[in-house]
Amino acid sequence: MPGARTSAHPIFTVQPREPLDERRVEHLSALAAEVRRLNEATVHTALPEEELTELTAQVRALTDRLDAARRAFPPVSGDGYTTPGEGMLQQIASPVTGELNPIAPPCRIEFLEDGSVRTEFTLNFLYEGPPGLAHGGVSAMVLDQLLGLAANNNGTPGLTASLELRYRRPTPLGQRLTAEARIDRIEGRKAYAVGRILNAEGKVTIEATAMFVMPMLG
Amino acid sequence: MPGARTSAHPIFTVQPREPLDERRVEHLSALAAEVRRLNEATVHTALPEEELTELTAQVRALTDRLDAARRAFPPVSGDGYTTPGEGMLQQIASPVTGELNPIAPPCRIEFLEDGSVRTEFTLNFLYEGPPGLAHGGVSAMVLDQLLGLAANNNGTPGLTASLELRYRRPTPLGQRLTAEARIDRIEGRKAYAVGRILNAEGKVTIEATAMFVMPMLG
Predict the structure, then answer these.
(1) I want to staple A158 with a disulfide (CB 3.0 to 4.6 A). Which of A214, B4, B64, B217 is the partner?
(2) pLDDT of residue B83
(3) Candidates A37, A70, A95; nearest CB to B138
């Protein structure tokens, strides 16, 4: 298949994905943004049961229409997967950063000149753990992605081999959070990254370290 | 407010939540199940742009109808929050286990007699990290929840203080996964839990340890 590359390492068999042009990405992003709002409305609604039944049927009908033309894999931006490093940046349907993925907050990433990465984001009640607070696992998910992107931005992309999180104070919902990550050191095929989440007052809520192993491409 | 309890520890201020009866939970679960399918259809659709624009407007209209009667916080089952331990089990809108939360897989938990907890679940492309594989952060989220439930099931519920993950082999999408967790030991107010995810062949893909600190309730 043209453009498809496979590697000796079975986990990095690169599947061909349909790359989208900008216009199509915009349309799908607009749809995903509305579905994201629908997700939130679903956990907050207090509508009477008769109306819920009616709306449930309407959602089903919408899904059936979208599925009438269905691709096997989520699309990517750019040229499709070529290398794992480029692939990560092209994942417009990522559960953390993907504008096209309705379950992503989504976290928009800034790639800084010093090689570090940064994102500002807000979590709503879809991401709740303890009452009024972010789910510890949701924060872990954001940090895993961000530390992975730091490794990527450093030119040393890899798969997560270990991830360690220290929860210092609660991470609130509904307020602007900042997450940042950078590469600490490289040892052979291992990239060590560090990162953290800060609350709106700039206080650290969670610290993270991760080790990524760079794949050997065939 | 009747049933509301607050604690000296500000993070465990227990917010009053509206408890739902079983019938209402069923209706909201049915809605969430359809919205979950819509999320998946959104990342897979190959519909032409004109249709996407039309469907986007329809999703917006549905959201506006659901939001016409909106509660400030997601609902819970049972009697509403009384203790953190009970509260965790009543979180029917949890991002991991919540039937009412469209972004949750959702993982249905079994509480075993030996005190351990277990779930069988499948992740679709909404949860993709590397091509064809589960996002490492999504797996971390599932494990954080499961280890927390093990602490809860042990009668020692708490907030995540640390979480460590070792990724042993890839965690595939689209196949039945099993996750299990149990309490390893208790030291004062600290509960140490261990857990793992297994692939369909029963091989460990990720190992996790976590420490939970039990709150002091006022």
Answers:
(1) A214
(2) 60
(3) A95
Return the amino acid letter for A112. Answer: L
DSSP notation for B105-128: -PPEEEE-TTS-EEEEE---GGGB
* A122 inside domain: yes
A144 membership: H or E segment, kind and range: helix A136-153
The confidence score (pLDDT) of residue A146 equals 97
Q: Which pLDDT does position A83 carry in this prediction?
A: 60
- Residue A65 covered by a domain: no
Q: How many domains does chain A have?
A: 1
User: What value of ipTM does the predicted structure carry?
Assistant: 0.91
The answer to whether residue A25 neighbours chain B at the CB level (below 8 Å) is no
Task: Give me the CATH number covering residue B205.
Answer: 3.10.129.10
Q: Report, in this order, helix, strand and coil percent for chain A, each rounded to 5.
A: 35, 25, 40
The alpha carbon of residue A15 and the mean position of all alpha carbons in its chain are separated, in whole angstroms, by: 19
Best B42, B91, B133 member to test A by mutation, with max A CBs in 10 Å, is B42
Chain B residues inside the 8 Å CB shell of A146: none
Question: Is residue A176 a part of any domain in this protein?
Answer: yes
Residue A162 belongs to what domain range? 96-213
Q: What is the torsional sign of CA B151, B156, B160, B162?
A: negative
Q: In sequence order, what are the residues at sequence separation of 6 or more whose Cβ sits closer than 8 angstroms to the Cβ of residue B197?
A: B139, B142, B143, B171, B177, B178, B179, B204, B205, B206
CA angle A159/A71/B169 to nearest 5° reads: 20
Return the pLDDT at A21.
85
Chain A residues closer than 8 Å to B130 by CB:
11-12, 84, 87, 159
pLDDT in tens, A70-120: 999 998 876 655 565 667 778 899 999 999 999 999 999 999 988 899 999
Coil, strand or helix at B143: helix
B98-153 pLDDT tens trace? 999 999 999 999 999 888 999 999 999 999 998 899 999 999 999 999 999 999 88
Give contacts of B133 with chain A, Cβ < 8 Å. Answer: 11
Most B-contacting residue of A45, A76, A86 (CB-CB within 10 A), to test interface = A45
The CA distance from A202 to the nearest CA of chain B, in Å, is: 18
A217 at interface of B, judged by CB pairs closer than 8 A: no
Return left, alpha or beta for B153; rule: phi > 0 is left, psi -120 to 50 is alpha, else beta: alpha
Decide the pairing of beta strands B19-20 and B76-77. parallel
